[in-house]
Amino acid sequence: MSSIAVIQRTFAVLEAVAASGSASAKEVAHRLEIPLPSVYRLLQELVEHGYLVHLKEQRCFELGPKCFDLGLSFRQRLVAPSAIRQATDELHRQVQAASYFAVYRGSDIVLTHLSDCTAHPRLRPLRFGFHEAAHATAFGKILLAGMPAEQRDSYLAARGMPVLTPHTMTNRHQLDAQLHAVAVRGVAWEHEEFLPQKTCAAVPVRNGSGIQVGAMAVSMPSQEAAGREREIEAVLREYAGRCSRYLRSGHPVTAA
Amino acid sequence: MSSIAVIQRTFAVLEAVAASGSASAKEVAHRLEIPLPSVYRLLQELVEHGYLVHLKEQRCFELGPKCFDLGLSFRQRLVAPSAIRQATDELHRQVQAASYFAVYRGSDIVLTHLSDCTAHPRLRPLRFGFHEAAHATAFGKILLAGMPAEQRDSYLAARGMPVLTPHTMTNRHQLDAQLHAVAVRGVAWEHEEFLPQKTCAAVPVRNGSGIQVGAMAVSMPSQEAAGREREIEAVLREYAGRCSRYLRSGHPVTAA
DNA sequence: GGCGGCTTCTCGCCTGACGAGAAACGGAAA
DNA sequence: TTTCCGTTTCTCGTCAGGCGAGAAGCCGCC
Description:
Two copies of one chain form a homodimer. By secondary structure, chain A is an alpha+beta fold. Chain A folds into two domains: 5-70, Winged helix-like DNA-binding domain superfamily/Winged helix DNA-binding domain (Arc Repressor Mutant, subunit A, Orthogonal Bundle), CATH 1.10.10; 79-249, Beta-Lactamase (2-Layer Sandwich). In chain A, 48% of the residues lie in helices and 19% in strands. In chain A, the strands form two sheets. In chain A, strands 5-4-3-8-7-6 form a six-stranded antiparallel beta sheet, sandwiched between helices. A two-stranded antiparallel sheet of chain A has the order 1-2. In chain A, helix 2 (25-32) crosses helix 3, helix 5 (82-95) packs antiparallel against helix 10 (229-249) and helix 6 (138-145) crosses helix 8 (172-185). The longest helix of chain A is centred in the C-terminal third of the chain and has 21 residues, at 229-249. Chain A binds chain B through residues 1-4, 6-8, 10-11, 14-15, 18-19, 21-22, 41-42, 44-45, 48-49, 51, 53-55, 62-63, 65-77, 105-106, 108, 129-130, and chain B through 1-4, 6-8, 10-11, 14-15, 18-19, 21-22, 41-42, 44-45, 48-49, 51, 53-55, 62-63, 65-77, 105-106, 108, 129-130.
C-alpha cells in the first residue's frame, strides 16, 4: 500500500473534520496524532482550496463548498439518463409501487434513480448512491447474478452478508443457488429479506451488446404483492425492455 | 498564497476529473501540464483513498464513493434542523407557495431547506446549497441587509451583481438604499428580479441572542402575489417567529 | 504474432515539507 | 483597562521522501 504521506494526512484531516461535522485544529491533531503545526498547515491548505471553511467565531473547521460540489459532480455523473428516469417514473405509476434503477460502477452497485411518492414510499434505507446489501435486495440479486463469479466473490467477501431481517439469506451456498435460479429465470424476488413486511422484484437491463448493465426493481408491502406476481413481472419486463432498447438505440422508447 | 505543491496538484487532478466527469491519465496530464508519472502517482493515491475509481474497461478515472460521502456529510451538517424544516413545510402549505430557509455560513449564504410541490414548485435555479445571487432574491436581500457593511462589500465584490432579468438591480447604491429599507421594515420583496413572472418575500430569523442568523422566504407567480402582500408578510412573520423561538429555546414551537 | 497505446517501475537528485519552539493574537474574566 | 489563557501563526535548520526521465511491462487490437 503505497502512500504519499502528505496526501495521506491531508485526507485524514479532511475526513476527521467530515466525521466530526465540526472540529478544532487541536481536536484533529489529538485524534490523528499529528503535531499541531502540521495540522494547521494542512487545515489551511484545505481551506485555501475550498474543502474546508474556518468558522472563526466558533474557532473550528467545517466542510467547505468544494465538498458539496464534488458530491454534485458525482451525482450528475451517475444519475440515470432522463429516458431511464422517465421509464422508472412510469413504472412507478403503473405498478403503484416505488421503483428503482441500479447499475454496476466498477466493482460497486449504485442506485442511480428511484421514483416514489407518499402513497408508495421507497424502502427507507434505499437512496441514491452506493448499495451495500446486494444479498438482501431484488435488484442486488439480479446484479450479483450478472457478475463474473470471482467479482461476486470479492464483492461479498468485502461486505459480508449482514442479517437484516429473520428472512435474510446468510448462507453463501443457498445464495449461490438462488442467484443461479435468478440468472436462469431473469427475475429476482425478495420477500422480507431486506425489510420486514416488504417485498421487492427486479429484472435485468442490458446494453446494446446484450451485456447486463443494470436492473429495474419495484418494492411494495408484502400483502400488496400477493397474487400480483405475474402482472408485476410482466410490467417490469416491459419497462426494463424499454430501458434496454434505449441503451441500444440512444433514443427514448415510449411504447411497446 | 501558500501552497504545499503535492496537495495543490492532488486537488487539481481531482477537480480535473470532476470537471470532465471522466478522464484518462493522459488527458489530465496534458490539461494540467504535469508530467505523466506524477499524474499516475496522484491518481493512484486518489483511487487508494476512494476519491476516484479506475474504470479499467474504459481506461479512465471517475469520481469515487468518498466524493459522494463528503457531499452527504456536508448536507447533513448544513441541512436545517427538523423543527425548522417542519415550520418551512407548514409555511408552504399555509401560503400555498414554495418556501425556503437560508442561513449564513462563514461569509456565504446557504439555502438549508426548501419545501415545494408540483402545484407550487420552487424557483428552478434555487436548490439546497450555496446561493450566489443574493442581490436578486428576497432572502438574499434579508441576509445581505443583516451583514456588517464590510462583509457585504466583499460578498458583492466577489460575486458581482449579474443581470438575471430586466428588473434585476445592478446599481450598488440603489441596492444599498433598498437594503437599508429592508433592514428597517424587517421584510424583503423581490419582484421579477430573479426570474420573470415570479415574486418572492422574505423575513429574518434570529437566534437566542437576537442576532439575525437566517431568513425565511416564499416564492410564487407574480399574479398570485398581487393583493396578498399583507397576508403573506403576516404569515411569514408568524413562521419565522416560530423558528426564532425554536432557536432560543431548543424546543419545537407548534402554535403561537 | 506483432504493433501501439496505456500503465507501472527504477533510481539518484534535491526540493520543500517537517516539527520544536517561540512569538503574536484575541477573547474572556477580573 | 489589565491579566490570563488558549488558539493561531511564524522561524529555521534538517533530511525524508517526492520528483521526473527513462525504460520495462502489460493489454487489447489489428
